[in-house]
Design a protein that fits this description.
By secondary structure, this protein is mainly alpha-helical. It has one domain. About 85% of the residues lie in helices and about 0% in strands. The protein has three helices and no strands. The radius of gyration is 15 Å and the shape is flat. It starts with a helix and ends in a 5-residue tail after the last helix. The relative contact order is 0.12.
């Protein structure tokens, strides 16, 4: 029963990631694209964790943590660039 729920959740997260890619490409302006990129890395974290659960290994948790840190830094850098025009002062 839990494996069926796991595969359904995987399908839903993949669908959410595809919708985020669509918003990233067709976003009307830059803040929408930054938000789509932010939610896309969150979906990537969810996919990696779900894949780790499906395969029964803890190795994917470290990769998810790495993506979380890099995604946060990238989102902050993009937001700062959109606000001030430069990332490094």
């Amino acid at each position: 029963m839990i494996t069926i729920a796991l595969y359904i959740t995987l399908a839903m997260v993949v669908l959410a990631a595809l919708l985020n890619v669509y918003r990233l490409i067709r976003g009307p302006d830059a803040p929408d694209r930054v938000l789509a990129l932010d939610t896309l890395y969150i979906n990537a974290i969810a996919l990696i964790i779900l894949l780790g659960l499906a395969l029964g290994t803890r190795l994917y948790l470290e990769a998810a943590l790495l993506i979380a840190v890099m995604g946060f830094v990238g989102t902050v850098a993009m937001a700062k660039y959109l606000k001030r025009g430069s990332v490094i002062e």
